[in-house]
Write a structure and sequence with these properties.
About 40% of the residues lie in helices and about 15% in strands. It has two helices and five strands. The strands form two sheets. The chain has a three-stranded antiparallel sheet, with no helix packed on it. Strands 4-5 form a two-stranded antiparallel ribbon. Strand 1 and strand 2 form a beta hairpin. The longest helix is centred in the C-terminal third of the chain and has 30 residues.
Length: about 120
């Protein structure tokens, strides 16, 4: 991941969020509580929500989607939904693996300070 790209880090345990903006500045928000719902408004005001996955979960889900697409008879709508979902799950898997690699070599974004 680009170390200068905008990104949001949410620490569910601390109820805090850090947002890195496009210019590199960071905004910290504390006191959010343990369970904060996240929503994204997309095209035509379509509402979507995140699915929090570990790298291992993303890998299993990607394999399951592939298996279903190859071996299970499903409706055309379900097939299209899984075909659309598959690259997103792969991207999540890759980003999590990269973040884990960066954390192992010390180049990941630092953990939020407790100031």
């Amino acid at each position: 991941m680009d170390d200068e790209a905008p990104v949001v880090h949410y620490d569910a345990g601390a109820g805090a969020m850090r947002v890195r903006l496009a210019g590199g500045e960071e905004v910290a928000i504390s006191g959010l509580g343990l369970e904060v719902p996240f929503w994204r408004h997309g095209p035509a005001d379509a509402l979507s929500a995140p699915l929090w996955l570990t790298a291992g979960q993303a890998e299993v889900l990607e394999k399951m989607i592939g298996y279903i697409l190859q071996n299970v008879r499903i409706s055309a709508g379900s097939q299209q939904a899984l075909e659309d979902l598959s690259p997103l799950v792969g991207q999540i898997r890759d980003e999590l693996a990269e973040a884990a690699g960066n954390a192992a070599d010390g180049s990941a974004s630092p953990a939020p300070d407790d100031d």
